[in-house]
Specification:
The chain is of the alpha+beta class. 36% of the residues lie in helices and 14% in strands. The protein is built from four helices and four strands. The strands form two sheets. Strands 1-2 form a two-stranded antiparallel sheet. A two-stranded antiparallel sheet has the order 3-4. The longest helix is centred in the first third of the chain and has 18 residues. The chain starts with 5 loop residues before the first helix and ends with a helix.
Length: 126
């Protein structure tokens, strides 16, 4: 940004502030009310996408946080896949156990077994 007239820099800054004001109501954000989320540099060092003290031509950033990209969850092994429900959306529902499929599998495995064998199967399933 070297060589850019100060007037243009100020115009860009004001345009940026105007766009931010459209999306964010600054009255809702009060740092003095925030007691739960207090982080120091040592808490953030080494986190993915977090950089400190970056100097670029004509500017300096004390903190830069890159947007994290969502990745698909790891594959579930074949023998347990039918019992676990998992989605691709990281903000969606948490992984859960499909109780009906697990119960059905247990009942079919317990068919024709003695009470002791069924008890052993229950322990194994848990």
């Amino acid at each position: 940004m070297m060589g850019v007239p100060p007037r243009d820099l100020l115009t860009r800054l004001l345009d940026y502030i105007e766009e931010q004001a459209k999306a964010i109501n600054p009255r809702a954000f009060r740092l003095s009310n925030t007691r739960e989320f207090l982080r120091h540099r040592a808490d953030l060092v080494g986190l993915p996408g977090v950089e400190f003290d970056i100097s670029v031509e004509g500017d300096h950033f004390w903190l830069r946080v890159h947007r994290l990209e969502a990745h698909k969850p790891p594959l579930i092994d074949e023998k347990n896949r039918e019992f676990i429900r998992i989605g691709d959306d990281p903000a969606g529902a948490k992984p859960s156990i499909d109780d009906e499929a697990l119960k059905s599998h247990f009942l079919s495995a317990a068919e024709g077994k003695t009470a002791e064998e069924i008890e052993a199967l229950e322990r194994q399933h848990r």
